[in-house]
Hints:
The complex is a heterodimer.
Chain A: H1 2-8, E1 23-24, H2 30-57, E2 60-64, E3 76-87, E4 91-98, H3 105-108, H4 113-116, H5 124-127, E5 146-147, E6 160-165, H6 181-187, E7 198-199, H7 207-213, E8 221-228, E9 235-244, E10 255-261, H8 271-297
Parallel strand pairs in A: 5-7
Antiparallel strand pairs in A: 2-10, 3-9, 4-8, 4-10, 6-9
Helix pairs in contact in A: 2-8
Chain B: H1 6-9, E1 20-23, H2 37-43, H3 59-67, H4 71-83, H5 93-126, E2 129-134, E3 137-138, E4 163-164, E5 169-174, E6 183-187, E7 195-201, E8 208-212, H6 214-217, E9 223-226, H7 229-240, H8 246-255, E10 257-262, E11 273-279, E12 297-298, E13 302-308, E14 312-313, E15 318-320, E16 324-331, H9 337-340, H10 351-384, H11 401-415, H12 424-441, E17 447-452, H13 466-469, H14 477-486, H15 504-520, E18 524-529, E19 532-533, E20 545-551, E21 557-568, E22 571-573, H16 580-587, H17 594-600, H18 605-619, E23 624-627, E24 633-636, H19 640-651, E25 654-660, E26 663-668, E27 671-681, E28 689-696, E29 702-708, H20 710-713, H21 741-756, E30 760-769, H22 771-786, H23 791-802, E31 807-818, H24 822-831, E32 835-839, H25 844-853, E33 862-866, H26 871-898, H27 903-910, E34 913-918, H28 919-937, E35 940-946, H29 950-964, E36 967-972, H30 978-983, E37 986-990, H31 997-1001, E38 1004-1006, H32 1011-1048, H33 1062-1072, H34 1075-1083, H35 1089-1094, H36 1099-1103, H37 1110-1134, H38 1150-1172, E39 1176-1177, H39 1178-1200, H40 1211-1216, H41 1219-1246, ...
Parallel strand pairs in B: 20-32, 20-36, 32-35, 33-34, 34-35, 36-37, 37-38
Antiparallel strand pairs in B: 1-10, 2-5, 2-6, 3-4, 6-16, 7-14, 7-16, 8-9, 8-15, 10-11, 11-13, 12-13, 17-18, 19-38, 21-22, 21-31, 23-24, 25-26, 26-27, 27-28, 28-29, 29-30, 30-31
Helix pairs in contact in B: 3-5, 4-5, 4-11, 5-33, 10-11, 12-32, 12-34, 16-18, 18-19, 21-25, 22-23, 24-32, 26-28, 28-29, 32-34, 32-37, 32-38, 33-39, 34-39, 37-38, 37-41, 38-39, 38-41
Amino acid sequence: xxxxxxxxxxxxxxxxxxxxxxxxxxxxxxxxxxxxxxxxxxxxxxxxxxxxxxxxxxxxxxxxxxxxxxxxxxxxxxxxxxxxxxxxxxxxxxxxxxxxxxxxxxxxxxxxxxxxxxxxxxxxxxxxxxxxxxxxxxxxxxxxxxxxxxxxxxxxxxxxxxxxxxxxxxxxxxxxxxxxxxxxxxxxxxxxxxxxxxxxxxxxxxxxxxxxxxxxxxxxxxxxxxxxxxxxxxxxxxxxxxxxxxxxxxxxxxxxxxxxxxxxxxxxxxxxxxxxxxxxxxxxxxxxxxxxxxxxxxxxxxxxxxxxxxxx
Amino acid sequence: xxxxxxxxxxxxxxxxxxxxxxxxxxxxxxxxxxxxxxxxxxxxxxxxxxxxxxxxxxxxxxxxxxxxxxxxxxxxxxxxxxxxxxxxxxxxxxxxxxxxxxxxxxxxxxxxxxxxxxxxxxxxxxxxxxxxxxxxxxxxxxxxxxxxxxxxxxxxxxxxxxxxxxxxxxxxxxxxxxxxxxxxxxxxxxxxxxxxxxxxxxxxxxxxxxxxxxxxxxxxxxxxxxxxxxxxxxxxxxxxxxxxxxxxxxxxxxxxxxxxxxxxxxxxxxxxxxxxxxxxxxxxxxxxxxxxxxxxxxxxxxxxxxxxxxxxxxxxxxxxxxxxxxxxxxxxxxxxxxxxxxxxxxxxxxxxxxxxxxxxxxxxxxxxxxxxxxxxxxxxxxxxxxxxxxxxxxxxxxxxxxxxxxxxxxxxxxxxxxxxxxxxxxxxxxxxxxxxxxxxxxxxxxxxxxxxxxxxxxxxxxxxxxxxxxxxxxxxxxxxxxxxxxxxxxxxxxxxxxxxxxxxxxxxxxxxxxxxxxxxxxxxxxxxxxxxxxxxxxxxxxxxxxxxxxxxxxxxxxxxxxxxxxxxxxxxxxxxxxxxxxxxxxxxxxxxxxxxxxxxxxxxxxxxxxxxxxxxxxxxxxxxxxxxxxxxxxxxxxxxxxxxxxxxxxxxxxxxxxxxxxxxxxxxxxxxxxxxxxxxxxxxxxxxxxxxxxxxxxxxxxxxxxxxxxxxxxxxxxxxxxxxxxxxxxxxxxxxxxxxxxxxxxxxxxxxxxxxxxxxxxxxxxxxxxxxxxxxxxxxxxxxxxxxxxxxxxxxxxxxxxxxxxxxxxxxxxxxxxxxxxxxxxxxxxxxxxxxxxxxxxxxxxxxxxxxxxxxxxxxxxxxxxxxxxxxxxxxxxxxxxxxxxxxxxxxxxxxxxxxxxxxxxxxxxxxxxxxxxxxxxxxxxxxxxxxxxxxxxxxxxxxxxxxxxxxxxxxxxxxxxxxxxxxxxxxxxxxxxxxxxxxxxxxxxxxxxxxxxxxxxxxxxxxxxxxxxxxxxxxxxxxxxxxxxxxxxxxxxxxxxxxxxxxxxxxxxxxxxxxxxxxxxxxxxxxxxxxxxxxxxxxxxxxxxxxxxxxxxxxxxxxxxxxxxxxxxxxxxxxxxxxxxxxxxxxxxxxxxxxxxxxxxxxxxxxxxxxxxxxxxxxxxxxxxxxxxxxxxxxxxxxxxxxxxxxxxxxxxxxxxxxxxxxxxxxxxxxxxxxxxxxxxxxxxxxxxxxxxxxxxxxxxxxxxxxxxxxxxxxxxxxxxx
Lengths: 312, 1267
């Protein structure tokens, strides 16, 4: 009986149900493919050239200081560095750390975003994120909660770096604008001064802190420290880099650098992107040409029945 | 105690035990003491049917249990558990639990819905109400001791007085409360609630009732059931005395007491053995019934009556054309044959499915290798480097090495969990069901059946007997349609032949036409029927079919038998359907009146032969006659041959009227003639013949009429050695002693001729039996009937005794027309490199002839025939053929060597062989020569097995399947094909005239044979291409996306830090990339349908299984690995030293890197799907571009949810503001996809496949046409 019922339900003769929807059935014909390859080549090579060009214009100076005998841990030191060419403002001052696993899982998750937004978090289950640094002594005592808690916030880079010109005059550097605007606006708010816990510091809106809290992608990373907006004209000649070396990195074979860099529309000095475009462009172009020659010399007639097996 | 229970059921194979069922006695209908009552109740199951898998209470647990039997689910549960441990897990628990929950939830909802549907169906059948005879309330008295065996005497008479007659009555109770032993009354059109023994019916004469069993076995013709004379005669009194008050009627029931011994419940629908011990009340012994009582052995008190399947009405069938019946319930609830038959056929899995399981395990192993590498490296890195990193605070409480290893191991186990394609299995499940849906929608595989409401055939009709059967009311309309459907004389066949390509317009107009005709009037009605997919698991298996085993009758042919010719007494009649036989009688009888001829048997031998021939046709059958509105007899029979015989005799004015009351009434010309039916020996596929023993009421002579296949009948003919004993010997008794060797020879010759024309032949024969001889035989017969052990064997032996020394009358030739499009379909299939075997019970000549007419055999091909009757002969024939084959091959090789001509390939291809083998030779082959036979059969492109028994059918399939390991497909329509259908890798049932048993056992049920080529070469091929694409892509996308993340470990101190956002990880499989594989599997067409329809050889491309191999998966996994390596290291080079992002000197960090990477990897993974897809309809467009859009939307949403996802807050927005981001995404997409694209182009341009060439051709032609 079931069969009878089914038969009364007559499937509609719609294009969908009969799988006859209008469709585009692309076939890779030589013409469009060759043209596409050549066009990709023609478009990509100039783009790559433009990127390399602007990347090359970026001036970047990387100065390691932790291996400087004058700059031992706990010392203040000055390094003289001569710029071969002058750097147009704005010049960005970065510190760079090597072999520092800011992207280690244990490290990345060890933060409490609620706390960082100035909210007093006393629920230990929520604070679990901060492991292994929740309280000062590991107990579950509300008054001993670390503010801020977690590994990231408790390992903030604390070397101070300043620049001076050859004559020893401090160069005016700005701190404002080194962090992401969205972080400043929403993600970080000062902790109440008399809030719960052992407050190491409550100034979470400090941009240096915010920059540190955005964990790096790779174990060698740099972070924006100060910006020179060019009040004293372009940087040139010898500059003094004054460093207060407080941050220990030797235990994990880390290295510390100061980086001075200008930028372009593409960002910093970035050879990869430009070369990638050029290489891909060349490969496509060559492929296009090869296929075109092959097609010219011995074309395969599309859909010709003479290639069918039984006709050979 | 012979009561069955669950434990004892196990014994049924070892020994036959019969449960006793007592009715109309005291104490809950059973003879047991009070203390046993509870126990007994539990022994018989109640009649509540529950086909649901779950109850509302155990659903959650049971369903979860079922689901977590799947190993992928277990795997993801383990992963989820790991993610719940924050110490270890790199992933948020939501990333695994959400997708797992989604998958489990969806499956559970689907299960719950299906189960709810079953529950509702159960409920409606459980709550139907039936009239049950209520036992009188017993007046308390001493208990009887329990019965210990069936021989225990029935209760003493005094006890009967101790009940309250008033309380006994018929009462409506719900179906679920029906118990074994209840006496039940069922009205017309009511369905039967349990298996019941028919006691009596409203048909007063012989207690016959009609039952429709379409729900049970799909056969829409009415079946006849007959109550035992003893029980019926008792009830007859009740029914006759209609004037009696109800109470008095009920008293009759009280008097009906006894017990039934019957088999344990089993699932055989067509066999039942039992005995009814009826307690006789002396007063009730009916004197009229002495003759009937021949059958019963009357003891002092108890009448023992044998019961058979003729009395057993099964649950699920419906009473038709009978006012009411009475019966006793013998099997209830889950003991009913319907329930016992509801076990689903063995589940079959496709080759692809098995490969997926192994591939998943392969991926799992790959993953475990990565996990172990990560654990080792991770532990080393932790020990050497990160432990020294003060900022990680490890120094405070450094873990022991063991703990580090364990933690790293589990962390990476979870971290890499998504390398295993989680959603693949559920995607495939949905995909296959949807594919099945599209198959069912396919109009080109539908069939339009015109059902004529009026008979086209008109003939004189005597209206006298009309009243008796004319109780058809409105409810029977449906029934009539079915009858007429069976009797169609014309038929519409949709002109959608597969080899023709049909334009859309054509199809449309055809459908419009149908609409018109179906709307235009009641005269005829068009019923659309669609194929059904029972097991969509096998969709892709269809593409691998190498062997097709086909039944002939009803599968290749219409199974609409037309009586073509006959040979009577050695004389051929070419057109018996045009009253030629009647004319034979009429013409030559100048001296006698027509009626006289009939009664006297005619003058000439020819006339006598013709008359006996017609009587044989009208009486020796198992058909049921009914009258339609116009009083025209309509016959119903499980065998279409019988119907054609009856229709032929009807046209010759020998009309079968009814079989009633042990009598067969026929109408000869206008005169009615009655035969007493003494016994009938029914047709079975083993016996291959049927006989009836009749007594002519007028002459009191006993005749045996027999018909059957020539192979069995010829040996039963009376061999008269005296050749001279001819014409002169005829006496008034007709042909009784007339058996001319000449006629036998002639008839044999005619049979051969008919067979050569492809006609089905039957031999008709008869003999007269002396009354004494018959009575002797009948006595023996009855004594056997009452025994239960070995009953069948003994009866068979007795029947053999009687069916001997027969006189040949003639033979019939019935044409079974080939279905429309069969030759084209077979040709198409053969060209598709599929080997087609036809397995038929026909004679060799018929089979070969059919073989030629359906293009299975061709005159240009060499034909081998194996036809042996001994072991040695068979071996010799096989060896001959093998030598022959070797010779031919050597010749070909020589030719090839002599003339290095490429065209030789062509010659070789054309050199096809065909093989014909008969059933007898197969016996030897199965015994000894399987290998030899198969070595020949493998070289033959077509094989015909003729004279094959149903058991051999499945043996052949099994043999080929086992030896060749190729995918075998069986197609058949009848019950005898079921074993073959279930044996093959794919079983296809044709929904035909022989009921739906075959189609119920099948994986796909078709309406016409010609749909097979579309099912295999189009739907099967597409399913394979589609599923392969879907599976490949599922492996690829998971590998690509999550291997990138693994590579990040190198730079994260092997800390299993994730690169992507949790939200992206969660939604990657469930949302972002869920749609493309699904759409690929629904709509993809590598080659247009029309190309496939014209080029059968394209099937080779999928048939060799190269579309989906382990290599395929390996390749896609490697492709994925390439892409992830390229993408990760590209990213690494860009982010070296934490790259400055924009001209404001901003630095991104981990979050930005993750966002870059997710963007370009997701987009290139989706575009990879776009490269794979060759058929873009608007849904596919929406699916692919929509998925990219979906990614952007998800990224934007996670971007804005500060409190719940602070990590990704504004990250994506920031990326979107960077020029570098766009440049990076574009170049990475090109880098990862250009190799794929180039290799695709090279492959298509320089190494094109056959199908691609034809597709190009098709597309170019299409473009030309458009321009």
